[in-house]
Amino acid sequence: MLLLEVFLTGTTLQIRPGIGNSEPFLGADSQQGWVYPAADVANSTGAWSTTPLPFTAQVGWSLTPGAEYFVFAYSQHRFSNRQAVPLLIARDQVSGNWILAASPPSTSEGLRAVSWNLRSSQPSGSRTLLRENSSTPIQIRQPAELVLATTDWSYYESANEPAQFWEPLLLPTDFAAVNLSSGAMSYFKPPDGSEWLAIGGHGLLLRTKDPTPTAGPTP
Amino acid sequence: MTFQVTCQSFAPGSWKWTGKDPAGVGLQLDSAFRAFAALVNALPDNASTPLSVVRSHADATANRWGYTWQLGHPVEPAHLWFHSDTPATGAPPQGDTQSSSSAVFGSALASTFTNNTSNGGYGSYSNSTAYGTGLAYLDSTAAGATSIGAILLIAQDTTPGQEFFCWALKTHGGNDDLHRDCCHALYKSPGTTGWNSIAVFPRTTKQFYGQVVLHGYSGNRFGGLPSGISSSIHANGHQLRSGIALGHYDFTLQAQGLFDDPPPLIQLPAPLFIGSTSIRGASTHFGKNSCPDGVMLQLGQRSSERDVWLWVPAGTSHTQPSPWSSPLALSHWRECNELHFISSLPPQGIQLITSTADFIRHFPPHERHGRPSAPSAGATALRLRGRRYRRRKWWWGNGRRSDATRDRAALAAGDLIVSWVSARLLLPCVGCPDRMLEPLLWAWDPKRNRYSNGHVLFHGRHLHSAPDGHHECTARD
After folding, report:
1. A143: cis peptide before it, omega within 30°?
2. CB < 8 Å to B254, chain A
3. What pLDDT digit, counting tens, does each position of A57-100 carry?
4. What is the mean pLDDT of chain B?
5. Chain B within 8 Å of A210 (Cβ-Cβ)?
6. A209 at interface of B, judged by CB pairs closer than 8 A
7. Is the distance from CB of A219 to CB of A213 less than 8 angstroms?
8. CA–CA separation, B61 vs B75, rounded Å?
9. Which of B211-215, B375-379, B417-421 ranks highest by mean pLDDT?
10. Do residues B36 and B346 touch, judged by C-beta distance below 8 A?
11. Is A131 in CB contact (< 8 Å) with chain B?
12. Yes or no, beta carbons of A150 and B239 under 8 Å apart
């Protein structure tokens, strides 16, 4: 069972990813018994402003078999610390399992995601989208891949966990990643004719228009 | 030849990087590479990109030892080299301090090469790029390294489209801190014809010079392959990844918004798992991980920048004539736990975009297909006169040409056109002052059958765009 709790408490939006009832012990657990997908995929928080502000929200979904997703995102204003994706449910393009993910309105605290590894059925988690750093040319990168966060067992002196093999976590093709630091509601038109809407504050793009089929030479 | 992994062991006393013995490591590596090159050069797809040897250990005249290989290209071949430099006399084991770089990994265009015996027999380059690195314990016949042996491991694949040649050098014995196990691979990435190169020199506590050196050779230069490796690997995970896809792109063109068709992403060779480890586990540089479907062998060393492992699937051939043998038979390997190996999938690709609005692409003056429409299609223009901001007319949507012409006819000198793109001042034409020019709007160019910007040369006539259409101008601006 994958768990994702989104708390809105006062001025804080907190995202807490979890793996339900693992047996034997798999991820990394909190003092309250909450099992995180990896040791450092714990809570993620950001500030939620209660001051009335210009507010935009984006909802996207698809029922395409094998590539289903639902995403809700908002931006309270153009400040990069007010842009969040409180909910993203998507089908992992490798394993076919669900990915449950969210990112809070914060520039420092990134995305949290939980899923299951195809090969070992181990819980699988992520803290970030795979993006080139911002000093490389700005690029829309497909597929949108989540960087796997794994528990570094070597620091648990007695664990001696066997080596593990993992497959990547990939979001459906309607998503992409851009290496810009923020900019929810930014809109991108790359040369292939596709169009993309930036959602959240961490470079996640949602496709609004498919690429133009390759046309013949223009006179 | 499908994927094949073989090795040769050089026992203490016979291990000597700095020598020309035909049975020694240098010339054995050379002959293995020549055999690989002969096979892949015979493939039709490599006809214009043959590999060849420019220098080998046999060419050494002084204290420089290594190889220079040529990556073929129809226009401009390139050179890659790996050289060690040994002190002339009384050599201590190489690389025993952090700051001593005892070897160089470099690249240059073949045209910059002076083919002579300078630089220890390896010739000189007028323009080259070099990365400092190191080898340790170069000569087990010399004092200080007599207990050192080494293993030369070669993984190769000559399957068309999957060409891959990787050598790794692993020393053993002596001080565990001082080994400098490294690897260098040439490979092809799907969708590209040229050769790509990756060299991994792990940085350790005793090795200041450590890095992953990536090269993609695209014709007249080595392209940067900005490192997606760092972003692909979770910082604290003891993770090693394969199949990382890197962009191979040109910063200059991209910044101009002209790089509409980036080359395909370069996919690092699938058998190599590159990542970040720390000094834990059963061995710092002879790690092994046995699985039901294969074996993972450590080519590099425990290092946060970067360790490298090789996936040897079950059934991999190890067949080569003696003295080559299977590396799996070596007793040096130690089973290691606590590592995460992440495989990857072929990339779908990237689209380069400008970080600011690209007016040429994003706000085209007319529709790309079908009949041409007004230059200002889609824009909202607000006309302002003098200091009185009087709204005169709005242009909406996909206006037809007649609308635009009618609207423009009403414009006069000093008008300010405000659109969602920018503001421009109307100026009278130099040659015909009764005409207003709109230098940044678009005129119909009958020659090219499309709208053109401002000043149009047509059959030797100078035409200007103007609010009431283009006209011939007597001025030559």
Report:
1. yes
2. 137
3. 999 999 999 999 999 999 887 677 788 999 999 999 999 999 99
4. 75
5. no
6. no
7. no
8. 31
9. B211-215
10. no
11. yes
12. yes
